Amino acid sequence: MAEHKIFVLDDEPDIGNYVAQVATLSGFESSYFSEPGAFLAAIEAFPEACVAIDLQMPAMDGIEVLRRLSALRFRRPILIMSGMDRKVLEAARHFARINELPVSDIISKPARVEELRQVFQKLHGSSHLLPTRAELVEAMQRREFVLHLQPKVRIVGDAGGGVSYIPCGFEGLMRWQSSNRGLVSPDIFIPLVSTMRLNAEFADYLFDSALVILENWQRSGVAASLAINLSAPDVEDLGLADRLWQRCAGTGVDPARVIIEITETAAMRYPEQALDVLTRLRLRGFQLSLDDFGTGYSSLVQLQRLPFVELKIDRSLVSDCLGSEHTRIIVKAIIDLGHNLGLTVVAEGVEDEATLRLLHGWSCDLGQGYFFARPLPPDQAEAWWLQHNPVGDCSGRLA
Ligand code: G
Ligand code: G
Ligand code: MN
Question: Which residue's alpha carbon is nearest to atom 20 within ligand 1?
Answer without folding.
Answer: 229
